[in-house]
Each structure stands twice: as structure tokens, then as C-alpha cells.
Design brief:
Structural class: alpha/beta
Helix content: 25-40%
Number of domains: 2
Mean pLDDT: 89
Number of strands: 8
Largest sheet: 5 strands, mixed
Length: 223
């Protein structure tokens, strides 16, 4: 009996956590992380990728959460779509929605970093360097202080998927530079493993061919 054809479509940050666990028979596509800044563009890019790949896979696993509703309205064209029932990828890195909620309750003013976010360079800290180059240090300093006004902690999520020392050094220096308390918190590969291998239980939305991902699917009480 052959394995069902499976494909992963994920952003550049999430795929970093998936690649070490990706079965050899599962292909993957990577989309630009910058698409998150415009949910409509993200939705369009995802739908194009789904449409282009539906003939090559029976199931497409999306390495995304709700992501500012960027996945709402996606149609499963000729395949089954599987997406974790999470607001964003932080829950994926921490292993579950409950782990994310616990962190949010205990430390609400937290900015999270992972290897993927640091490599992609899409954070207020990377934006600060770009603003220094384009608008000068005084402007950059003023803007980043506004951006970080509600944050007190910078947390590096350690999922155990890669050598952390280089990223640990960057995160520590960044926290010190911007007056944030640095902590390293334990992540988990539990949700990533379930994304790739199942079971796709109530932690996931499973959309059959021809169906559309709807906002209410992200609530466990929805039918």
C-alpha cells in the first residue's frame, strides 16, 4: 500500500521547524514570510500554491495558523487541506495552543524569537537597523521604542531542532540593547509532528476537496 501523496506549504519561519522532521516522501513549498504583512496577498499566494499543487498531492498541510485571517477563504481544489487550529505560529513552536495561552497569561508583554524569525530578519529589531540606514538613528530609536512600548520580555523559543548558540547570543544582545528581560523558553515539536504525521484531531482543521476554510473552523465548538 503506497503512502498518500502529501505536500507541505509553509512560510520560511515555520519550515525551519518542519524540515528536520519531514518524511522523505513529503515534498514542501516555501512562501515568503513578508506576505504576513498583507493578509490578502498571503491568501492569494496560498491559493495559487494550492491550485498549482493539487494535482501532485492528495493532502496539503499548511504551515500556517489563522495568521490575521490570511487562510480564511482558501479552497481545497482537488485535495484535502490540513491546517493547525492556532492563531499564529507561536503556538506551533510551543507545541500547542494551551502552551501559548499559558505563556500569554504569565508573561503577556513578550516578544518571541526563533531561528526562523532571526534568519528571515522580519522583526522590530531588524527593522530598526533598516531605519537607522534610511532615516537615521534618532528616528529609528524613537520608532522602535514606540513599537516595543508594551513589551517587557524577549523570549527565545528552543525547540531543540538546531544549534542554538548563535541565535542565543543575538537574542541576548538584542534584549540588552532594547531594555528587555531575556529568557529562553522550552518549545516543543509535538504539534509539528502531528501536522506531518497525524492524527489530525481537534487541534486541526481538515477541509475536504471543494470545501473552503472558514473563520468559525478555528473555534473548537464549531460544527
Amino acid at each position: 500500500m503506497t503512502e498518500p501523496r502529501k505536500l507541505v506549504i509553509a512560510c520560511a519561519t515555520v519550515i525551519e521547524e518542519m524540515l528536520p522532521l519531514l518524511p522523505p516522501y513529503v515534498e514542501h513549498r516555501i512562501l515568503d514570510f513578508g506576505l504576513h504583512t498583507d493578509p490578502a496577498k498571503l491568501r492569494h499566494a496560498l491559493q495559487n500554491a494550492i491550485d498549482a499543487s493539487s494535482g501532485q498531492a492528495d493532502t496539503i498541510v499548511l504551515g500556517y495558523g489563522l495568521c490575521s485571517q490570511g487562510v480564511i477563504g482558501l479552497r481545497a481544489t482537488g485535495c484535502t487541506l490540513v491546517v493547525p487550529r492556532v492563531d499564529d505560529c507561536i503556538a506551533i513552536f510551543l507545541g500547542s495552543c494551551s502552551a501559548y495561552r499559558q505563556q500569554s497569561w504569565s508573561e503577556p508583554g513578550t516578544y518571541y524569537l526563533t531561528k526562523g524569525w532571526i534568519e528571515v530578519g522580519d522583526s522590530p529589531f531588524a527593522e530598526y537597523e533598516r531605519m537607522v540606514a534610511s532615516r537615521g538613528p534618532e528616528y529609528a530609536e524613537r520608532i522602535i521604542r514606540l513599537m516595543l512600548s508594551n513589551y517587557k520580555r524577549l523570549a527565545l523559543i528552543n525547540t531543540g531542532q538546531y544549534e542554538l548558540e548563535r541565535y542565543r547570543d543575538y537574542a541576548r544582545r538584542t534584549a540588552e540593547r532594547f531594555g528587555l528581560r531575556y529568557e529562553e523558553i522550552e518549545g516543543s515539536t509535538a504539534l509539528v509532528k502531528k501536522m506531518l504525521n497525524g492524527p489530525w484531531d481537534d487541534e486541526f482543521i481538515v477541509v475536504q476537496p471543494g470545501q473552503v476554510i472558514q473563520f468559525q473552523h478555528f473555534f473548537r465548538t464549531a460544527s
